[in-house]
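Hello, quick one for you while I still have it in my head. A protein chain has come my way and I'm curious about its shape. Can you walk me through what the tokens say about the fold? No rush at all, and the record is pasted right below.
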Amino acid sequence: MGLFDRVRDSAGGSIDVRDDLSAGTNVTLHFVLLGALAWGSGQPFLFPSLGPSAYLLATGEKPRAEGAYHVVGGHAIAAICGLAAYVLFADGLVVVDAFEHGERFSADIGRLVISGIVSMLLTTIAMLWSDTNHPAACATTLIVALGLMSTVVEVVIIVVSVVVLVWFHGTIVERVQTICGVEPTDPR
């Protein structure tokens, strides 16, 4: 049994090379634009939680997690909840700096942990109440609450990046999919 056959068997026989390459191409298109914005502006228009959002858009995932309302709404709620928790509990701290020395029971690490917990609590409740339900936004709230992107300007950049991602998907990527015949046919 060859490598491709073993991979297909481990995936339950569900490998569709055309669909998978289409989804990969679509994700790449999303990040070319956002990468160009980041590079050209020197601002963080690329951040980790955009990856899952682009994946959901590119693969045609379940409607509860994708679509403008869910993606933009979820990230906006997460960014605001993360900023509120950060300002209340960890203002001025950055998680990578706090963990640099590995000091056990550090007050700074404790404040960041509380900020992260509170941001997740607020984000979860707010997404459920607003029916935005975008799981990738939970990463956004932690990015903000842990001090990685925790200024008002950076929170605005997060929301603008997500709006650009969704807009670009709806106006450009979907057209490219249709014109080139690369729209995934098997949403997963």
In short: The helical segments are 3-10, 17-41, 50-59, 68-89, 95-98, 107-130, 137-145, 152-180. DSSP finds eight helices and no strands in the chain.
